[in-house]
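Support case: user asked for a sample of complex input and structure output to validate their parser. Sending the pair below.
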Amino acid sequence: MKKKILRFCPVCKGPLPEDKNGNTVYCSDECYDYNKSVDASEKNKKKSLQKILLFLDNTANETYGLYGSKPFSAKVFLDRGFVWDTYSELITIENIQAKKLIRYAYVLFTNQTVKIWKL
Ligand SMILES: [Zn+2]
């Protein structure tokens, strides 16, 4: 005798119809399509985040070439289209909480100067 296991659709949380075979994950084409579209937009989000990070990291690279690890005016970053809300993670360097990009991390001080670290 085959054991019946009640399974649930990860999208709508409803039970899967019993006539669905064992490999079926979603209860309906609608739930399948919905999941696919969410997946695609997550991937797009990740891709564009990666693009922004790369741009910011390149900006940091260019600026590091000019100022090294000396603090400089935040305007230098702003003039290059830098944005502050995108970074890969927060890390602590020299007891300062810095925003890590890819090869560089930086901190924006309250006096509107920026310091960069090469990682
Ligand atoms: Zn469903």
